[in-house]
Structures are given as structure tokens and as C-alpha cells.
Amino acid sequence: MFLLALSLRRRLVLCAALALLLLAAAYALQYLFGYQPCSLCLKQRLAWWGVLVGVAAVSLLPERRRTQLVLRAAALLASLLVLAGGGLAVFHAGGERGWWTLTLLCEGFTFDAAMTTEDLRTLLQTRKPVPCDEPALRVFRLSLSEYNALFSFFVLGWLADGVRRERAQDLRRGRRRDERKR
Q1: According to the model, what pLDDT value does residue 1 have?
Q2: Distance, C-alpha 135 to centroid of its chain
Q3: I need a labelling partner for 165 at 20 to 30 A (CA). Which of 35, 45, 67, 79 fits?
Q4: Is 159:11 a contact under the CB 8 Å cutoff?
Q5: Torsion angle of C-alpha atoms 70, 74, 77, 83, degrees rounded to 10
Q6: pLDDT category, 149, cuts 50, 70, 90?
Q7: Residue 133: what pLDDT?
Q8: How is domain 7-181 classified at the CATH fold level?
Q9: Can you list the pairs that 94-98 forms with residues at least 24 positions away whose Cβ atoms lie under 8 Å?
Q10: Section 53-78 average pLDDT
Q11: 93 exposure class (CB count in 10 Å sphere: 0-12, 13-18, 19+)
Q12: For residue 67, with 0-12 CB atoms within 10 Å meaning exposed, 13-18 middle and 19 or more buried, which class applies?
């Protein structure tokens, strides 16, 4: 119930904090525990990075510029990013479950930007690509892409509810102003 009572501004800040937590968990699994992500896993992270950067940009605006319109636009942008990431997560999860094939969409290797040509050649010769259709980790029978999809659609609904509540509150304020004018 507490989460439903938050204002849109606070929902956006909490959404950015959740994005940061999700990204931190993904990077911890990768760099601390050795679970290598496939290319679709890496693409799903981009949506959460977009949410984090977008909300941070709005938060840095001066208070007088952070109007309800700006907050709603930020919520719309965050919602679209979360929807895209969640859709990709559903697609990825379907491939992991064997509902469709991911062969054309998954390159299989993760690259480091600091790699030299010789490093890349060695990687291609010695390492197996990370397959997108085999989950690296399952927790309670769900893969990480399935958790990402569930989390994404929860956040999407939660942000939409925040916009709906703010809009309803604005309409109530408008009616009160109209009644006072009469």
C-alpha cells in the first residue's frame, strides 16, 4: 500500500533506484560470480540504463523546471524503456523455454571495448559463444530474463498508476477551482 501512495516524482526516483539495484545485481553476477551474459542479456540492461540516466537528468533540473508535465514525460519515457526491455526479456525467456529460436538474434560472444585484434582472434578461436537459449542461472525455476520480464511489467504498471493518480488529482483540483469561481 505504501508504494501506491507515492507521488509521481518519488516513484520516478524509486524507479531509478530499482534500476540501479537491478544493474548492480546483473554486474555482480557477471563480474563477481562468473555468470557470463549473452548478447540479449546485455541488450536488456540498456533499458534500465536509460531509465537511470533519464530520471537522473530530470532530478538534476531545478525545482521550478520540474513541472508535472516534465515528470509525466519522464514517466512516459521510463515506461517506454521498461516496456521495450520487458518485451525483449519476454522474447528472450521464450527462446530459453524453446518456444521459438533465437539463432539469428544472438551473436553469442560478449566483447570488451579494450580488446585488441589479437585478443579478439584468440577469443574466437578458444572460447565458446554464450548461447542465448540456455539460461546461465535459474532461481526457483525461473531464468533471470523471466525475472526481468516480471519486474519490468510490475514497474510499468506501477508507473502508469502513478501517472493516473496524478492526473486524477489534477482533475479534482481543477473542479475545486471551478467551483470556487462560481
Answers
A1: 62
A2: 19
A3: 45
A4: yes
A5: -140
A6: very high
A7: 74
A8: Bromodomain-like (1.20.1550)
A9: 95/40, 95/132, 95/133, 96/132, 96/133, 96/134, 96/135, 96/143, 96/145, 96/146, 98/133
A10: 86
A11: buried
A12: exposed
Q: Could you state, in order of their start, the residue ranges of all structural domains in the chain?
A: 7-181
Cβ-based burial of 133 (10 A; exposed 0-12, middle 13-18, buried ≥19): middle
Distance separating alpha carbons of residues 73 and 114, to the nearest angstrom: 36
Instruction: Answer yes or no: pTM beyond 0.85.
Output: no
Length of the chain: 182
Cα–Cα distance for residue pair 56/150, rounded to 1 Å: 24
